[in-house]
Structures are given as structure tokens and as C-alpha cells.
Amino acid sequence: MVIRVPFHTPGPDVEMFISERLPWIEKKLAEKERSIKEARKAFVSGEEFLYLGEGYPLEIEEGEEKEGSLTLAFGKFILGKGYAARARDLFIAWYKREAKEKLSERLSFYSERLRLSPNGMRITSARSRWGSCSGDNRLAFSWRIIMASLNVIDYILIHELAHIREKNHSKRFWSLVESVMPDYRMRRLWLKRNGHRLNL
Length: 200
Prior knowledge:
Largest sheet: 4 strands, mixed
Number of strands: 7
Structural class: alpha/beta
Number of domains: 2
Distance between the termini: 22 Å
Radius of gyration: 21 Å
CATH topology of the largest domain: Zincin-like
CATH superfamily of the largest domain: Metalloproteases ("zincins"), catalytic domain
């Protein structure tokens, strides 16, 4: 955890601030550690993986004839046993492909609706930043958001599109987001509370 204070703050004041809030700091660190542990995957049969807000169990199939890359079919993720050691990499590649396809479609829809055109879109492996908008209006999104529901994905897309016009989080920025998504606060709250689940 990083605690930022004004440059000229005396050391004793910083120490007092930390000691007074130590229980709260320890609680937050414990919550974060627990969230990370909960999010780790073992990649075993029966374990659930998110896609577009729904959970699908993983089935690792036995037998040479069933060896194959990761697929989602019949309400489950299917992986040949011989590929189990590479499961995490295969899941990431699969999620990235899906994210590129689905996000491109929805970004196009909302770009027209907002009349804002990004200078391209790319999929990243960012862990804590769901999306970003560069100074030259290039958008980037973490592949992890494809695990969330379309409601949450749409909020992230609209949020970054709005930054093309407003490069900050001013009142004008949030008004623009709200004009397209009146319930954006609920979707943002879900992301704050459940974002740790969008991980492998």
C-alpha cells in the first residue's frame, strides 16, 4: 500500500496519521489479499469461469482423441487433458479474441450514438485499469472486462469514449456519460465491488 502526503508534511505527522488509522489500513490490506486469493484459478474440472457475466464450469476431457484447444460449448469450457498445463495461457488467448470481437462491435455502436470516433482500439493485459483513452484518442481495454456482463462492459466503453471529448472527470464528463447511460452509477458500483472477480 502507498500512502501519499504533501511534500513538506513532517515525518511525525505522517507516523501519527498511520498509527491512528492502522486498524483500517490492516483491514483494507486483508480484504485485498483475500480478494486476490479468491480470484486465483486452479484450472481444474468443475471450476467456474466468467464470460459476459455468466459462470461456466471447466471440463477437462480425457483421452487422446479429445485433445484440443479451449472451447466454450454446451454451457461449459472444454479443454483436452493434454493442454491442462497451458490452461491459463489458453484462457487468456481465448478471452483476448472474444474481447477484440465483442468490444469492437459495441464500441462501434456507442461511437455512433455519442458521435465520437476513437483513433483505434487495442486489447491489453492491464490488471487494475479497465480502460484508457490516450491524448490522441486511442482507446485501450483490458481483456479481463469480457468476463463482466454487457451492462458493465458498456459502461466501461462509454466512459472511455466520453474521454475523447472530456479529458477529465468533470461535471461535463459525467453528464455526457449519464446522457447515454442514466444508471451508470449502479454499473460503476458493481465494478468497484466485484472487479477483483474479473481475473484468472
